[in-house]
Amino acid sequence: MIVFPNAKINIGLNITERRPDGYHNLETIFYPIKINDVLEVIESDALSFQSSGLEIPGSEDDNLCLRGYQLLKRDFKLPPVAIHLHKNIPIGAGLGGGSSDAAFFIKLMNEKFRLGLTADQMMDYARVLGADCAFFINNQPVFAFEKGDEFESIKLDLSGYKIVLVMPDAHVSTAEAYRGVKPTFVKETLYDLIQMPVAQWKRHIRNDFEAHIFNNHPVIRGVKASLYERGALYASMSGSGASVFGIFETLPDLSTLEETCRVFYNV
Ligand SMILES: C[C@](O)(CO)[C@H](O)COP(=O)(O)OP(=O)(O)OC[C@H]1O[C@@H](n2ccc(N)nc2=O)[C@H](O)[C@@H]1O
Ligand SMILES: Nc1ncnc2c1ncn2[C@@H]1O[C@H](COP(=O)(O)OP(=O)(O)OP(=O)(O)O)[C@@H](O)[C@H]1O
């Protein structure tokens, strides 16, 4: 069975408090985008994992797909499987690529081996693997809160706009991003702000990671500025970075950015 795990962007991200467990409470809007990996699972004689495409740092045993397999195996009698992941979603990008692979792996296993899990049950498994992971089970635009793994559905349809995603030559680890952030009280919740017209978002919606990540990686600040110079209605770093997205009325010419960055049009 083959599935195509997709990336997400965060529209707005407010870090509201540090939790006793070391994590942070936050609020954000998750929006799915059309940048995809390819994940294939076949029944096999032995458990194996191989990947192609972008190089994934870390050992294969730490790959979130294998961790998903081990997690399900605690509760279900599963045969060995051969997993192939073709990696295309940029890594260290704030696009949730690894989390998406894990969530799609759980959905695939549920279907392939008829495990009978509901979406809520799959989300409970996904939460164990990462804060971002549960979102990709339903994969619909949501307002997310607490660790970013509790959701309220929202009406948000950006299909009438052109969304462009730019990945500069910089990588930010999620842990690095959280280490430098100072939680702040939220006056106006994103749940309400997101209902404003897109052209007004620039004045009201922010990503709390940007300030210190831009200081550590000025190239990311430059990409965001370029998107506004080319007419973006709204531009922001996604999640903990390093990718930056822009929402446009018409598709911009980003050929100069393409010299130094990976640019994805119409995501
Ligand atoms: C930045 C976001 O992508 C926004 O959507 C997410 O909050 C990150 O979620 P994620 O990559 O799934 O994160 P995890 O793999 O669960 O956590 C990585 C590290 O980020 C920090 N972390 C993550 C989520 C959160 N709400 N508070 C945190 O402080 C913790 O130090 C944790 O050890
Ligand atoms: N399937 C996978 N794809 C990508 N990274 C993976 C995968 N499985 C495990 N990882 C590990 O996760 C790390 C990437 O996570 P990181 O949080 O830094 O960036 P990200 O992919 O942009 O995700 P996020 O949006 O959650 O921040 C990699 O260094 C790698 O070791």
UniProtKB/TrEMBL annotation:
Single annotated GO MF: ATP binding
Active site: K8, D132
GO biological process terms held by the UniProt record: isopentenyl diphosphate biosynthetic process, methylerythritol 4-phosphate pathway; terpenoid biosynthetic process
Coiled-coil segments on the chain, per record: none
Enzyme class per UniProt: transferase
Domain of life from the UniProt record: Bacteria
Enzyme Commission code: 2.7.1.148
Family in the record: Belongs to the GHMP kinase family. IspE subfamily.
Protein name: 4-diphosphocytidyl-2-C-methyl-D-erythritol kinase
Record lineage: Bacteria, Pseudomonadati, Bacteroidota, Sphingobacteriia, Sphingobacteriales
Gene: ispE
